[in-house]
Write a structure and sequence with these properties.
This protein has one domain. It is built from 3 helices and 2 strands; from the N terminus they run αβαβα. It is globular.
């Protein structure tokens, strides 16, 4: 579990943005595979730049890899969304 899984670029995203991004990239928790990210405090991202998450995977190494992948994808998508909103 991470108290802040969000990269700095993600500040300003709303919960709907997060749901769209994690669904598109398959990051959300999947009960069939018992792997994925369970997000918490999504409402704090837009104003405070904070997003908590619990990464569930087959091993600690894979869970950490999921953290890094999530941060990277959120950063990339946040930059794309901010560019589109200009």
């Amino acid at each position: 579990s991470f108290s802040n899984i969000a990269p700095p670029e993600a500040k300003g995203l709303c919960p709907d943005d997060i749901i769209d991004i994690v669904t598109e990239f398959g990051l959300h928790y999947n009960s069939a595979t018992c792997c994925g990210v369970i997000f918490h405090m999504m409402g704090a991202l837009s104003q405070y730049g904070r997003l908590s998450g619990t990464c569930v995977a087959d091993s600690p190494e894979k869970a950490w890899e999921l953290v890094e992948t999530t941060r990277q994808i959120l950063a990339e998508q946040a930059v794309k969304l901010s560019w589109l909103q200009q």
